[in-house]
Amino acid sequence: MGAELRKATRRRVSQQALMLREDGSIIGTCTMLDVSGGGARLKIAAETVAPSEFTLLLSKVNAAMRRRCIVAWQEKQNIGVRFLPL
């Protein structure tokens, strides 16, 4: 197995989240599988088409719990995202 090249350590999680377009409309739900300070790995539904940039809403209760994302890679239903400044 190769050496870890990430700048930040990833932490495994299983957190439901909501993917939003720039206008606030819903793209779909996803599950955050792991996260680091710089990005995350998400599992999306087969029918969900992730745009190249979107907002990830991490809490239904606290709307401030969101991250702006850019897709770094996609493999079937798994996508890797990098976090952008809000």
Description of the molecule:
The chain has 86 residues and is mainly beta. The protein has one domain (11-84): Thrombin, subunit H (Beta Barrel). It has strands at 11-20, 26-35, 39-44, 53-57, 66-75, 78-84. A 6-stranded antiparallel beta barrel has the order 1-2-3-6-5-4. A hairpin with an 8-residue loop joins β4 and β5. The chain is globular and about 35 Å long. The termini are far apart. The mean pLDDT is 90.
> What is the molecular shape?
globular
Question: Regions with pLDDT < 50 over 5+ consecutive residues?
Answer: none
| Nearest-integer average pLDDT | 90
In percent, how much strand structure appears in the residues?
A: over 45%
Domains (count): 1
Which structural class should the secondary elements be placed in? mainly beta
Instruction: Write down the secondary-structure element order.
Output: EEEEEE
Termini distance?
35 Å
The fold-level CATH name is Thrombin, subunit H
What is the helix tally? 0
**Corresponding CATH architecture:** Beta Barrel
* Fraction of helical residues: under 10%
Report the strand count.
6
- The CATH homologous superfamily is named predicted glycosyltransferase like domains
- Biggest β-sheet strands, sense, barrel: 6 strands, antiparallel, barrel
